[in-house]
């Protein structure tokens, strides 16, 4: 599948790997792909993010992703559902961090002792983004998978990246409108979301 990736898309994946290593995370997650997309310049995804006003709100996105990571990757919807069962996620995070330190629930290991030269693997969520990006590209009749397809996949798949992007006004519909205009907007949308 990677042979179908454009240079920009490959650089996003490489950036996600580097961010994973830098932070000491054990796996490359969908969040790492989003963070790598935020660092891009001069690509279709960076154009779309700038057009939607996200370029100047990168730190806000990073902060929201960091907060979700502290909650062990739970979305607000997950936390609300647990609250409905009488489980206060904020209280659990506070107690765990009190004993084990800030960020203990993120699963990251800052000491690097686990690393021993091994490459981090892709989490199921990151693999889903890569697979969905192929479906999005096909739905839009694009021959190659670009970083814009990775961005669109992140907006479709449920989870923290989609929630954070939507909170910042970046949805599948808004990105599609910026990238493809109204002409292709209706045709590929349902197919991409379903596939």
TrEMBL record:
<dbReference type="InterPro" id="IPR004176">
    <property type="entry name" value="Clp_R_N"/>
</dbReference>
<dbReference type="InterPro" id="IPR036628">
    <property type="entry name" value="Clp_N_dom_sf"/>
</dbReference>
<keyword id="KW-0677">Repeat</keyword>
<dbReference type="Pfam" id="PF02861">
    <property type="entry name" value="Clp_N"/>
</dbReference>
<feature type="domain" description="Clp R">
    <location>
        <begin position="2"/>
        <end position="186"/>
    </location>
</feature>
<protein>
    <recommendedName>
        <fullName>Clp R domain-containing protein</fullName>
    </recommendedName>
</protein>
